[in-house]
Amino acid sequence: MNDFLNLPISEGTIDNILKDCAEKGKLAYEQIRQEVEKSYVVGGDETGIKINGKKGWLFTFQNRRFTFLASSMSRGFNTINDLFNNGFPKSVYVSDCLSAQLKVESKNKQLCTAHLQRELQNFIDVFNCDFSSQLKTLIEQAIELKYRLAKKDYLLHKNKARYFRIKLDKLLNLDHSNKHKKVLAFIKRLRKYKDYVFTFLEYTEVPPDNNGSKRAIRNAKVKMKISGQFKSFEGAESFAILRSIIDTAKKNSQNIFEALSLIPKIN
User: Fold this and answer.
1) Which of 15, 44, 167, 193 is most exposed by smallest CB count within 10 Å?
2) What is the pLDDT of residues 135-159, one digit of tens each?
3) Are 107 and 92 in contact (CB under 8 A)?
4) Strands annotated E in the chain
5) What CA–CA distance (Å, rounded) separates 10 from 265?
6) Residue 7: is its pLDDT beyond 80?
7) Radius of gyration of the chain (CA)
């Protein structure tokens, strides 16, 4: 402001502006939360942040139209439950294999295949694991099919997900006694959640990965790299509120400045 308009502005003034804007944006923030809660598809994820020198977390729950962010001092399921105590009864919930995420009540679930593929590639590189190569190829084939299907094809290809699940079962039920303990732990986990690997072949709008959630929390990582931390929990909350409104505006092709300027009018 000083360089462009010759208007000096202190850090305290900026902080007060952000707090005021966030306070006035709480209604819009709650409306976004409600829209996410009733969505057909929801992606959930979290990332570590620092709040006044302590470990904290920024959660996201998002889809193609809405982004809801929330700060917390806990990574546990209670944080998710406090935000969405009914879970997502109408949604296919997309997440990684974190136990807190998989405890979320939902209509169905989709594991992030990008996470699975990274683990499998690591097993291939480090252990030269044939099982990992075969499973990675199977997932790649399913994703390739996903992007070839038109909406009308989902009814015609209802058995495709079943075909890939059968192939997955066969791979998981092979003799893996000679595998490294890290691979065995992966196989044990996947046996438990195998029904959620190819859900994306059953629903038109369900993605095979959770990259949308990764994009939603990326700005928090940039914030951490630049400033190192949030100085207070209130500051982290303000960031979550304003970033939720900004990202939702962008997803709906709205002008960000106009969306923020409407916040006082909403209240």
Assistant:
1) 193
2) 999 999 999 999 998 877 776 666 7
3) yes
4) 41-51, 54-62, 67-72, 88-95, 106-111
5) 26
6) no
7) 21
